[in-house]
Amino acid sequence: MITIALPKGRTLQATLERFSRAGLLPEEDFASTRKLIVPARGAAARFLLLKDPDVPLYVERGAADLGVCGLDHVLESGADLLVPLDLGFGTCRLCLAAPKDSAVARGWRSGESGAERGRSLRVATKYPRLAARAFARRGVPVDVVRLYGSVELAAVSDLADAIVDLVETGRTLEDNGLVVVEELLQVSARLVVNRASYRLKLEELLPLLERMGGPP
Amino acid sequence: MTPLDSRSNNASEAPPRAAPPQGTQDLLFEAARRLRRCETALARVFEEHGFAEVIPPSIESAEVFADGAGSGAEALRAVDRHGHLLALRADFTAQVARIAATRLSGISPLRLYYRGSVVRETAAGSGVPRERLQAGCELVGEAGPGADAEMVALASASLLALGIPAGAARIAVGTVGYFSALIAAAGASARLARALTDAIDRKDLPGLTLLCTREVPPGKAREALLMLAQPPRRQAEASALLSRARDLSPGEPASAALQRLSAALDLLQAREPGAELEVDLGEVRGLGYYTGLVFNLYAAGAPRAVGGGGRYDTLLGRFGDPRPAVGFSLDLDALVPLARPA
Fold it and tell me: What confidence category does residue B180 fall into, taking pLDDT thresholds of 50, 70 and 90?
C-alpha cells in the first residue's frame, strides 16, 4: 500500500493528471467528496488531501510515502526528504520585492541593505526560513515578520521595508507600486519521497517515478 | 482575565521544569522493560559474534567529537571550572576509537560493542530526539572487505534478534570512496563538494544536473556524479549499475573503491543470503569520518533510517594509532517500538 499526499492548492489538477499517467486515479472526485482520504481506483494506493505546506511534514514523518508540493514549501519546511523529480508545473519565483524608489530597491545592488540607520531591515514574508537564509548569505541583519497572507500590504503599509514572496506574473506587485529587487528561488512542483519508503517500497515506487517523470 | 492569561502571567504557580528537556523522555515501567529486553537481545548477539562491551564516559573532551570526525557542531557543550571544553557524548564511535587508539593500541583485531545514549542538537520539529538510545559495534584493525561484510551481516543479524524479519528490513549499501574520488577528479571546491553531497543525498537529479552542468567540467567524473542520484538497485540487479560506474571511473581510486564494494557484496551474499540488500552509490551522507563502505538500515514502520555504519580508516589516526576500522550503530528509540525480541 502506497500513501500519496496531494496538495489541495492550485496545482491539484496538474498533480492528479501526473498520477493518472502512472495509472493512479482517485476513486472519488476530490471536488465533490468531503473525504480527506480517497483510495486509488483498482490499485494498492490511497490519496491524502492536504494543505500544500503540510505535504513535506506528512512525507517526512512517514504518514505518506510520497507527495507533491512546491519547492518553496519543501525548503521552507526544512523536512528531510528525497526530491527525485521536478514535475515542471506550478512554476513561479520567490523574490525579494520592495516599493519602487525605496531605499531597498535603490540600495540593494550597491551593497546597501536599505534599512534605516540604527535598525535592521524589516522583511515581511510567509517564508521566514528562506528569507532569513537569503539575508544571512549576504551578511545583512534582518528582522523577519512572519505573515499568513496579503504580504504585499506589509511593504506599502509601513509594517516592513521589503517582502519576500512568490511572484507569478508580477501584476500584484506592479498594482501595489512594488518592484522585484532580487530573485531568490525558481519554484516548481516537486515529487517528494520519504527516505525509508524509498528503500522499503522500492519495487512499487520505481515504476511510478519513471512513469510520472516520463512523457505523457 | 481568561484562565489562560492568569496562567501565563503567573508563571511562579507552575512547578519548575515539569517536563524533561525538549527531545528527551522518561521511560517508565513497561517502556523501560522493553528497552532493556532489546538491549539484552542485542548484547547477546554481539557477544555471540565475539564482541566485548566497553562503557565510555558520558562526557568527553569536546575535541573528540570535533568537526570532520562526526557531529562536532551538534554536540551539547559546556566549559568546566578548569576552563576545559567538554561535550556530552555525541557519538560512540569517536569515543571507542579513542579507547582503541590509546589503551588498546596494538591489539588487532578488536571487536568492541557499546550501548547507551548520545545527545545531539536536532532541528526542532524534526521528530528526531535530542537524546538517542543506541547500541553498536566497532571492528578495529581489519582492513579487508571481509570485515566490511562481517559488520553488515552483524547489523542484519541484530535486526533479526530484535524480531524484525529480513523481509521487513532493507540495508542500503554504498561507498563514500567512489564519491570522494569523483570529487577529487573533478577538482571540486569544498563548497561545491557540499552542494553535490546534498543534491545526491536528496536524490535531487534536477538539482544535481544543474550543478554539474554549471560547475563540473565535462568528462567521466561529471557523468559518474550524475549517476549517483539514480535510484538504488536490489543486489541481484546491481551488477549493471556497478559495471557502468566502473566504466565511468575517472581513475584508480574510484575503481578501487568500487572493487572493494563489489568484493564486500559478494562475501555478504555468501554469508547472509537472506538479507534484503540494495546497492545505492548515492549513500554519501553521514558522519564525516567514513572513508569506504557505508550502509543504512531501514525497517518497515520507521520513517527514517534505524541505524547505519561504515568504514572509517583515518579516525583512529587522530588519536595517534592509525588503524583501519569499521562499525555500525542502531537507534533503539526507533527500533524498540517495532521490536519483538525473543
Answer: very high
Angstroms from A101 CA to nearest CA on chain B? 34
Classify domain B26-338 at the CATH topology level.
BirA Bifunctional Protein; domain 2 (3.30.930)
Q: Is A36 on the interface with B (CB under 8 A)?
A: no
- The pLDDT tens digits for A100-151 are 988 888 877 666 666 666 678 899 999 999 999 999 988 888 999 999 999 9
Full-prediction pTM beyond 0.90? yes
- Domain assignments of chain B as residue spans, ordered by start: 26-338
Question: Contact B203/A206, CB-based, under 8 Å?
Answer: no
Q: What is the 3-state secondary structure (H, E, C) of B143-165?
A: CCHHHHHHHHHHHHHHHHHCCCC
Report residue B123 as a C-alpha cell. Answer: 532541528
pLDDT digits (tens, 9 = 90+) for B202-236: 999 999 999 999 999 999 999 999 999 989 999 88
Query: Can you list the domains of chain A with their CATH numbers?
Result: 2-90+188-213 (3.40.190.10), 92-186 (3.40.190.10)
Residue appearing with cell numbers 518592484? A179
Alpha-carbon distance values, B67 to A150, A211, B64, B200, B288 (Å): 43, 42, 9, 21, 8
Q: Quote the distance between the C-alpha of residue B197 and its chain's center.
A: 15
- Residue contact B204–A84, C-beta within 8 A: yes
In 3D space, the residue among B172, B162, B131 whose CA is nearest the CA of residue B304 turns out to be: B172
